[in-house]
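Protocol step 4 of 6: structure prediction from sequence.
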Amino acid sequence: MSTHRPAGAWVRRLATDRPGTMHEVILDELRSVILAGHAPPGAPINIDAVAHRFTVSRIPVREALKTLIGESLVDHEPRAGYTVAQLTRTELAELYVVREALETAALAAAVRSATPEDDIEVAAAHEALSRAIDEHDARGHHREGRRLHLALADPCRLRRLLGMFESAWNITEPLRPMSHVSREMTLALHADHQLMVDAFLARDADALLAASAEHYKRLQDVVATLPTKGLRD
């Protein structure tokens, strides 16, 4: 039963003063702490502790968790309760294949319709990511890496495609894969980012897609060497 599950220190990170309906607030906050890596894969989710944090009954917490199950961010077993979702190495590799397919489609369209305002966001995201890498800021690396990839894809203006891309990205995010990457691989991946940004700004679709493909090859190498912690057998 969830009442016997450990609360987890991450529950204290749930902000209770943001605007929105209680369901929206609980859902957004749970999603945020999971994506930020504060509640790692496999971490138990104590319904009573979350309900107490928001001073609500268990009902809106359960409703939020159902939504997160649909987003593949939370797992549920009848007797074991709720946990932050875990992936097998094979599932993670498959998700990167899905992410690559979606991002490739988005980039192909984005480079044709990008505006100077999009260029400014891409450049800013790249600069922020470079700074996080230089400072060995693992959380910043994940946050700004996501920002850069979304900034490159967003000019496609295809909302459904972008929604699927972001959803696929979210499922892999709780594992924090970049936290386990060697400095050499980190710099190689970021060199790919530089090539992608240069090609995007030059509106060179072929170069952009080639750099993206090389980037995803490296990411598959990362998946193959990730430690088993956080992964399901």
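Step 5 (inspection) to follow. The chain has nine helices and three strands.
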